[in-house]
Amino acid sequence: MYYGKSPEKHTVSKLPQKLTPLRSPHRGMINIMPLQAGGILTDAAREALTEFGDGYSVCDFCSGDLSDITIPPVRQFVREVLPPFLGCEVAAVTYGARDGMFMVMHSLAKPGDSVIVDGNRHYTTAVAAERTELEVIEGPHSGYPEFRINVDEYEPLIERHKPRLIVLTYPDGKYGNLPDARRLGEIAQHYDIPYVLNAAYAVGRMPVRMDALGADFIIGSGHKSMASAGPSGVLGMRKKWEELVLRKSKAHGNKEVECLGCTLRGVPLVTLMASFPQVEERVGHWDEQVSKAQWFSAELEKLGFRQLGEKPHRHDLLAFETPMFYDISKRVRDRGYFLYKELKTRGIWGLQPGMTRTVKVSTFAADKEQLAFVVDSFRAILGKYG
Ligand SMILES: *Cc1c(COP(=O)(O)O)cnc(C)c1O
Questions:
Q1: Ligand 1, pocket residues at CB < 6 Å
Q2: pLDDT of residue 25
Q3: Residue 278 belongs to a domain with what CATH number?
């Protein structure tokens, strides 16, 4: 009988040694990175992380449908906890915001259909549309410096293109602008077009309810904004879409087609669930987050930087033009990396290495004292090279 290569002859690759130690460079630092600030785990999630680290660890009592598992309480989370939180009738867990977007596009539209999106849409919206072979019609934004989305501009586009879907990014991931989502809900209802709210930067940070905004779908990201290890996301919808988007396989009656039968198993899901009580609680303190962001923005403008996006700002995601840093980068040895290095030395994490012309930060995870230190550090760096 043939058993394959004998173990003695099997050569062990050097690679595993090279991959260790796996240490996170940002651990213990003040984190102002937009991608990371809302995904930092709670203590409860950190515990769940090891408890459910093994593969397929939530499947002990699965009888075929993830959202029916009662130990751990997935069923309760998906059916009872998420819907009132999202303001939807039916909820599902997904691999991330992009997967929710793809599931909706793929189940509602067919190749050649068009979808209208805002001018600040995320790249994943475009890629999901591409995978579904949809034509993407992009609405305008107001341009520099605020890049506002005026949702009334959807109307002529809807009349002209008869789209299958409309998408609004709320807020967008570049400037943290919050367009008038409720007004777009009225427009969507008037034209009877399914309306998808991409709330990857909203769900888990700020109060946002699909029903209050008149949307058909709401999409959230667990690792972006819900303190989950991820990849994970949530998708809420009106009941009328359940049969289509969460339809079951003909061959396997308890397996959903759009998610290939099952989504989150183990760490992505249990960390999402474990963090949820605190996530729900923090959403209630959103006004404090907004005033922190506005304070930070004002402080940076006092240093001579210019905040891009809506003013006054209503989200923790902030972009600034920082021409003085750019000027410095042209005459120092580290070039654009000087800023990243200066901040890292001070225990501040989150600016994209090499970037100096504009910086994008989130004030969500850092407290006011830490943000004051960030402002002081910016000031000190300008002084040092000025
Ligand atoms: C981060 C982000 C996404 C992607 O989220 P994933 O959960 O990683 O798929 C989609 N849309 C917007 C607006 C985002 O900011």
A1: 96-98, 122, 124, 169, 173, 198, 200-201, 221, 224, 233
A2: 83
A3: 3.40.640.10
